[in-house]
Write a structure and sequence with these properties.
single chain, alpha+beta, 7 strands, 31% helix, binds coenzyme A
Length: 159
Amino acid sequence: MIHRNFLDLKNANKKDSKLLFDWSNDKLARNNSLSNKKILINDHNKWFNSELLNKNSYIWICIINNNPCGLIRFKKKNNRYTLSYLISPAYRGNNYSKPMIQLAINKFKSHKPRVKNIYAQVLTNNNLSIKILKSLGFKFKSISKNGLVHLLYFALKNK
Ligand SMILES: CC(C)(COP(=O)(O)OP(=O)(O)OC[C@H]1O[C@@H](n2cnc3c(N)ncnc32)[C@H](O)[C@@H]1OP(=O)(O)O)[C@@H](O)C(=O)NCCC(=O)NCCS
C-alpha cells in the first residue's frame, strides 16, 4: 500500500513539454483517447503553450522520489471541469493511479472550493479507468454516441 504522502504534484512548466509529448504518444494513452493518431511535435508544442497560458486549464505532474510518474489535467470547457490523467509507462502497475487522482482532486478542491462537480470521460472499453474512477466516488452519468462514458464526481461532498 502506497502512502499518499509519497506522491506529490507540481505545476507543469515549459521544461516538461518533451516529457508530456512522449507520454501523450504512448500507445495506451493514444488508444484510450478519442483520436488515436500519433501527435506531431509542432501540434503538441502549440497545444502545450496555449494550455500553459490558459487560466481554465490545470496541468500537474505527479512526482515520486523526485521522478515524474504521471500527469493530471483539469480543463474547464462549457462551464465544467473535466479530469484526465495518465501514469507514465515506466510507473504503471504500481497502484499509483488512485492516490495520484485522489491527491489531485483534493488539490483541485482547495483551488476551486466552489466547483460542485468534476467530470471525467473515458472510452467505453477503458474498463480499467472506469473501475478506478468509480472506486474514487465517480458515478456513471451517460454514454455518448462517440463511445465515451461520462462520469461525474460530486466535489462538494465531505467538505
Ligand atoms: C489508467 C492508468 C492511469 C492506470 O494506472 P496503472 O498504473 O496502470 O494502474 P494501477 O497500478 O494504479 O492500478 C489501479 C487498479 O487497476 C488494476 N490494474 C492495473 N493494471 C491492470 C491490468 N492490466 N489489468 C487489470 N487490472 C489492472 C490494479 O489492480 C488496481 O486495482 P485495485 O485497486 O482494485 O487493486 C494507466 O493505465 C494509464 O495511464 N492509462 C492511459 C491513460 C488513460 O487511460 N487515462 C484515462 C483516460 S483520461
